[in-house]
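Please predict the structure of the following assembly.
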Amino acid sequence: LKEKFNVPIFIENDATVAGLAENIIGVTKDKRNSLFITIGTGIGGGIIIDNKVYSGSHGVGSEIGHMIVGENFYPCNCGNNGCLETFASSTAAIKFARKLIEEGNEDTIILSKINNNLENLDTKIIFDSAKLGDSLANKVVDRMVKYLSIGIVNLINIIDPEIIAIGGGVSKAGDFLLNKIKDEIPQYILNKKIGYGDIVFAELGNDAGIVGAAMLCNHR
Ligand SMILES: [Zn+2]
């Protein structure tokens, strides 16, 4: 591309540029150090330090989704076991819900919502069922919240950002999810007396990646 168009070409992953877009015109605007975490079928991350994208010495840093946070019942696509995205992505929630349903130890309203067909299972159904007080659905949500909070606190303890923005499909679960994360996080925080960055939802939605990519040349 560089030769063909005779312009500098920058390459960043989509979560990183989305994080940059949030920092320029979105919810982390005016914050020097921020984190962006996108939660969908996987988990991606953008680390902004001094209003610039941080992607490490080899350009492959900020892989928040592959931070190892435990031991899981199935391996990650990357080959490791215990990556954050195998505990806290929508794929992870569906796999865990499916496991609990197949074990058959408790009734759940999820079964009627999916017409007894596990192929119909999605995170919206899991969250809607959890909001209605379904015990199995809440187990799935609580596990997701626990590991997501551990992952976020690991980042808080290391980077100490001013703000952490959560985007991606899972953020559609709204304050039900956000409040649970906010309740879970304090117990893991190292410097409890000092305070830590606020956790909010991202603002820009699906366009963030495109906006951020366009802005990349000025902010690296
Ligand atoms: Zn992984």
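Residues 66, 76, 78, 80, 83 surround zinc ion (CB under 6 Å). The two ends are 19 Å apart (CA to CA).
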